[in-house]
Design goal:
The protein is an all-alpha fold. The chain has a domain at about 235-330. About 70% of the residues lie in helices and about 0% in strands. The protein has 28 helices and no strands. It has helices at about 1-10, 15-30, 30-45, 50-60, 65-80, 85-95, 100-110, 120-130, 135-150, 155-165, 170-185, 190-205, 205-220, 225-240, 240-255, 260-275, 275-290, 295-310, 315-320, 330-345, 350-360, 365-375, 385-395, 400-415, 420-430, 435-445, 450, 475-480. This is Pentatricopeptide repeat-containing protein-mitochondrial domain-containing protein. It comes from Obba rivulosa.
Length: about 500
Amino acid sequence: MEVCAKMRNETIRPTRTTYNLILEACASEGMLLQARATLEDMMAGGLAPDNDSFYHVLQAARYMSSSVMWEVLELMAKHEVPWDQRTYEFVILRYAEDSVELALRYLAEMGEKQLSPTLKTMEGVINAACKLHLPRLALDLAEAFEESSVRRLDTQVWVDLLIACATDLWKEGVLRTWRKVVKELNITPDEGCCLLVLTTAARHGLSSLGLDVLQILKSMHVVWEEYHIAPILEAFCRDGNVQHAFEMLSLMRANDILPTTETTQPLFELLCSIPGAIDEAWTILDELNKQGKIVDVAALNVIIQTAIAVGDLQMALGVYKAAGDLRVRPNLETFNLLLAGCIASEQRQLGDRLLTEMKEMHIKPDPRTYERLIMLCLTQVTYEDAFFYLEEMKSTGIMPPLSVYEAIVLRCIRTGDPRSQLAFEEMRECGYIPSLELQRTLNAGAGGLAQAPRSGAPQSSEGKEENGWAEDIDVEQSRARTPRPRQVVL
């Protein structure tokens, strides 16, 4: 500005180039008032502004509202200055974030005028579409641009497209962008992007894509975890490939990764849906063992879980007994699954035998084990041991869950056992709120439980300790009184 003032004092008339340089300086600092004054001075001097002049004024107004932008554009129209690529770039990028429809409208208008959008314009619209969860639109724009232009989008744009497609679990988009990013551009996505792609692979059964991602992770020296391999297992399950799904479990064990029940859930669902799948699964595990591969106990458990789910407890027990043939040692989950089968078939004696074998293997019961033991006892005519296991559970420092208390209360109510009062009071002391089923039972005829004071709890004629449970129960005698279940050969 000082130079301009000096030029004015020396009666040196600025040229259009001089004015445009001044406007560019104003634009860089966002000085809209100074830019307008310069433009007016330019026109007053008889110089018609060109595209560069108005572009700099638009840039100076970039922090202003859209109405200011349109005032400048109307001034352009008044001076019959047509929009060029940079003008469209400014307008499109202004609307891309908040109104992508308007941005697309002006993008289409450029095509009608045979104007090619700038790289900055296309990348801005594509990124905006990705942020708005419109991966199909973004990918179509990117591919159409590169097909019609010798220019190429920045590699980060393609990575963003891959992330957007994977975030929306769009199968076709992930396949196309993965091929572009990894195969053509030789870009290695980061672990976060790989996890998104794995999720898509799991959802759509893209097992080959999942294996590609696993190799990319390996090339980055990322230590494999359960959440890296589990999606590939799920992808194989969606493909109906039982053998490769079991091989994923072996791969996890070979890499010191512990599969969980959630890991094998897709495999369990697949086995339940295929007739004769249990025999096929056992054959696969036998083959893996013969090949010298590690058979994970999770693979054994999922077969047991499937057998129990289809009501074949005999098959589940057979698989459990044959674990040694596969060099597999049953774990706590194995016994918990078998106890669930005992509950379904009301096999109390079998449950006792499993508990004995569990203790012989030095496997410590967990809350689920105690819960299932109690539930198993409640299936019998004589259910005294349910109270024994409840006390044992509490003695180990485990708080019984609401389901245990409710099962005991409901059973006692239905048999007229006065200990329902004690169980209900203890449940309330633990802070549990009765479920809808229990509330209905109480409202139907045992509502006194909800209101009766603890001091009025009935006592059994056999005598009880202050905790309310009969602690003098002879467990072995109570088991002897239990009706003999049908025999199951172990």
